[in-house]
Design brief:
By secondary structure, the chain is an alpha/beta fold. The chain has helices at 41-45, 47-56, 74-83, 117-125, 155-162, 169-183, 199-214, 216-225, 242-252, 293-316, 322-326, 329-343, 355-366, 375-379, 382-398, 406-418, 436-444, 457-460, 467-495, and strands at 7-8, 32-37, 64-69, 88-93, 99-104, 107-112, 131-134, 189-192, 231-234, 254-255, 260-262, 267-271, 287-289. Residues 291-477 form the Mannitol dehydrogenase C-terminal domain.
């Protein structure tokens, strides 16, 4: 492999790059039609890539993206993108080790809301902006897991309800919609792209609840006039590492401070409900459909939940990368057993999708050594992920005449064991979770309080009162404590 001298990524340096695709269109002609909150790797591997595809086809010049950051960590993204003229490198990592790279040019601006919330509001109030999209994480919608209600007592939300300088995505977007209403401008579409079932409906509920608390008339107008399409996005996109940056510099000669790495697989299913038009997404491989639900059920209940199935067991068994964990036959067989026995009976058929081919394909994707997705990333923010991805499978199964929840219960038990914060070698685990102190304290009360972890109603509702689930959970958690993760998986698979 030839090592190239790395060139700082910028508009001026594009012509100097070789062996990598660069924007073929005139970026000076591209104007923003989309404002996007949460410009991380996930967005840049999905929505921004699709707009770049369309721009390369000579269409969608008025559908460029203006990114917006609201969190303190977003300031670095603003600085990096500004220094690179909002360009970045998207690298697909193939299972055989091949890398393919392209420079994406669809992001044309970036605003950091804490510096100037007024600028963000006015940008969204501009008639040229017709879509406001979101990847703000599963927990970013501020919904109570048990009640399903928007949490008005959140400190930042409470601030925005009385302030003229909003800090949250809710305050910023609702104020922009108010100005569009008052100025007689068609409202934009709010398009959630987060890993949530019915993510458009979740977004609608969150934004209208905030608006109702601030201005009931505005909330009614939003409810009547703004559309919130559901969507499902699927592409494994691990956190960018320094090793990725070095590899991209060495192989492609690009000095990019924040590239994106991802698997070759790509899927975006989008409900065709837009307030003021949309790009021709279907021309860039997006499946534009009337009903997203069957697709999202399959993705959330098979792919996302299986990620949780491999991560806690994998970590306790000593694995630190998802591909290493999945290549262990015990873990891959466990994941297939969860998918076949617990999850599949809860799914709806999708025309054209062979689910019996899809499930082993997931194992192949998880096993891709090029991705180097970390087990720790998959373990993070479990209190947001497990209730939204895995527990709907449990509840649907419990409603069946003969429920099968043994593998889903095992995943929850493995989370409880992981959340104790010490691995099987006695080494500390860095638990990353918005409810870290609470879940760790509950997990550490075992065995004096066998079901303390399950009694957190915000996370589990009334599952602690479901004997079928609790018996399976108890059996696995006890085994994890006594003989460890590897022997527990052997026990589970032998009993299947």
């Amino acid at each position: 492999m030839t090592t190239q001298i790395a060139t700082q990524l910028s508009a001026a340096s594009l012509e100097a790059l070789s062996g990598v695709a660069v924007p073929s269109y005139d970026r000076s002609r591209v104007t923003a039609g989309i404002v996007h909150f949460g410009v991380g790797g996930f967005h840049r591997a999905h929505q921004a890539k699709v707009i770049d595809d369309l721009l390369s086809q000579g269409v969608a010049d008025d559908w460029g993206i203006c990114g917006v950051g609201v969190m303190p960590s977003d300031k670095r993204m603003r600085d990096v993108l500004e220094a690179q003229d909002h360009l970045y490198t998207l690298v697909e990592k193939h299972a055989d080790g091949e890398l393919t790279a392209r420079v994406i040019g669809s992001i044309v601006d970036y605003l950091y809301a804490p510096d100037d919330p007024e600028a963000v509001i006015e940008r969204m109030a501009d008639p040229s902006i017709r879509i406001v999209s979101l990847t703000v994480t599963e927990g970013g919608y501020n919904i109570n897991q048990v009640t399903g209600e928007f949490q008005l007592d959140d400190a930042r939300v409470a601030h925005d309800l009385t302030s003229d300088a909003p800090e949250t995505v809710f305050g910023l977007v609702v104020e922009a919609l108010r100005r569009r209403r008052d100025r007689g401008i068609t409202p934009f579409t709010v398009m959630s792209c987060d890993n949530l079932q019915n993510n458009g409906e979740v977004a609608r509920h969150a934004f209208t609840a905030f608006a109702h608390a601030k201005d009931a008339d505005l909330a009614a107008w939003i409810d009547d006039n703004v559309l919130f399409p559901n969507s499902m996005v699927d592409r494994i996109t691990p956190v960018t590492t320094d090793a990725d940056r070095a590899e991209i510099a060495r192989q492609f000669g690009i000095d990019d401070a924040w590239p994106v790495v991802c698997e070759p697989f790509f899927q975006w299913v989008l409900q065709d409900r837009f307030t003021d038009g949309r790009p021709p997404y279907q021309d860039a491989g997006v499946e534009v459909v009337d009903d997203v639900e069957p697709y999202e059920f399959i993705k959330l209940r098979l792919l996302n939940s299986s990620h949780q199935g491999l991560c806690y067991f994998g970590y306790l068994m000593g694995y630190r990368y998802a591909h290493d964990a999945t290549q262990d036959p015990l873990i891959s067989e466990f994941l297939l057993a969860y998918m076949n026995i617990d999850a599949t009976p809860t799914l709806k058929p999708v025309p054209g999708l062979d689910i019996e081919t899809y499930k082993p394909q997931l194992i192949e994707r998880f096993s891709n050594p090029g991705i180097r997705d970390t087990v720790a990333r998959l373990c993070a923010e479990s209190s947001d992920r497990i209730p939204k991805w895995l527990l709907p499978v449990v509840r649907d199964q419990l409603a069946m005449p003969e429920p099968h929840v043994q593998f889903a219960a095992a995943i929850v038990a493995s989370w409880a064991r992981y959340a104790e914060g010490v691995d099987e070698q006695g080494e500390p685990i860095d638990v990353v979770d918005r409810l870290k102190e609470r879940v760790m304290a509950a997990a550490q009360r075992y065995p004096d309080d066998k079901h303390g972890f399950l009694r957190d109603e915000e996370l589990f509702g009334n599952l602690v009162d479901e004997p079928v689930f609790v018996e399976a959970y108890d059996r696995v958690l006890s085994s994890l404590q006594e003989v460890g993760a590897r022997e527990t998986l052997r026990m589970l698979l032998a009993a299947a």
